[in-house]
Please model this.
Amino acid sequence: MQRLLARLMPVAVLSPTIVLTTIFIYGFIAFSVILSFTGSRMFPRFNFVGLDQYTRLFANPRWDVAVENMLIFGFLYIALSTLIGLTLAILLDQKIRNEGVLRTIYLYPMAISFIVTGVIWQWILNPGLGIQTFVRNLGFETFTFDWLVQNDYAIYCVVIAGVWQVSGYIMALFLAGLRGINMDIVNAAKIDGAGTWQTYRYVILPELRPMFLTAFVVQAHLAIKSYDLVVALTKGGPGFATELPSTFMYSTTFTRNEMGLGAASAVIMLCTIAAIVVPYLYSEIRNERRSA
Amino acid sequence: MSVAALDPAREGRGDFDWSARFSRFAVYAVLVFAALVFLVPLMSMVFTSLKDMDEIRGGNLLAPPAEVTFSAWVKAWSEACISVQCDGLAPYFINSLLIVVPAVIISVGLGALNGYVLTMWRFPGADWVFAGLLFGCFIPFQIVLIPMARMLGIMGLAGSIPGVVFVHIVYGIGFTTLFFRNYYASVPKELVKAASVDGAGFWGTWWHILMPISWPIVTVAVIWQFTGVWNDFLFGVSFSSGGSQPVTVALNNLVNTSTGVKEYNVDMAGAMISAFPTLFVYVVAGRFFLRGLMSGAVKG
Model:
């Protein structure tokens, strides 16, 4: 009897987590998927309408803007923070004095909330008293930097704030990658007469390939989930110029009472993230098993 | 991958071709310039929060305050109007504390136990359970918002602090389990076997053998959860109401719904107040924060 109890204990301990995960993650995903096939508005109703909500979603100009913004934001956010993070990591890896202090400075934005980041950048980028006025007061009276209130440029303000926040994290990932490279191959390249540039281009960067993948997955997943930053920085505006899928989902569901449509947009978001994350997690777990 | 790899004491590579003094200088120049770019927003925030509105209208957002005044801080803390209430951020700051403490303790505790079971008491299907948990860490939470709102209503927790705490626990377990599982995976199984030969049971082994060596990962998990829960906005704005909102939601309301003249100094002071706890933790325990970020990205 006691033995049986001892054998059941581990499963018993794990069971709250299994139950919570089953209901609140997978059950809820299923619920949202089902809702996306219904005509639910303010409350869930199970009047099935087939793929209508998806048809409506893709015909919705606001969703078009959200997807387009997602592509612009996602591409620039990933490209710029990878470039900045990698550059800082390589430079920091040159036996720099006070490396720890610099690293602490680059990484601190990751410790504050997207809301605070949004509030700070709203202040800096506001054309009234921010950067624009600052530069004008320096004597450049025609200087204009009012992207925050321009329909076509406001999304780039979200990029600036996002890159500022995440670059330090990417720097840390690449720095760890650099420090993990086997010095023997680098020295071998040196003996073969490779210069610094060539060593980085042909030896070190290829060795960092797994780190590029990790950084990409982290950034893509953060980009798709971005919500707070836009809310605090632009409220999705001007108009709905900086709408993202996340803000679209929220306002569609909770302020415009189009629950079925909102659920459909959430399903699209989930599928996009799953397409990026699942293969990555799969390969991570497989590698782990192989090395175990 | 570990933070030890980032230890500056370890040899960096490459003083090879950089030997020319100019390159050396250029490297430092770029690094210091980058540091300034990262610091300027924080600096501007602090300066602005200490100015009065007259000085702010002068339009120099990078200048230190000519006359330091804490009135914006006082207003942001206890007087500013957030929707209809004019008690400042203080009540919401307390809400955040009331949310973060139980959410962190429970999710880290469960994560530690889960990690223990998943490494030391493996059972058929354990890998599936872990894979299921792991994927749950990455879902966009928009996919659970609608059913969660309904469920909290059914449970009688809608719009309440316990409701928000519950949500943070449910979606926090994945990461805390990940931390402990990866940490315990590097603990020799013999240690646990020896303990069980000595007659220690399931709980005894965990408490007397594993927990004493777990404090680094406990720190990592606590800081990760603390930062995540404190900085959360989406769950706060979705599942709390009026008097139970966390400070991030209140800050956003303060900044984005203020009628009349926009008081940037109060906004900045409010932002500083909301950011203070996590910044403080980062300054005193940045190493553990970094370690959380690293193992949050990859298996560990």
Remarks:
- Chain A has one domain: 61-291.
- Chain A touches chain B through 113 residues (CB under 8 Å).
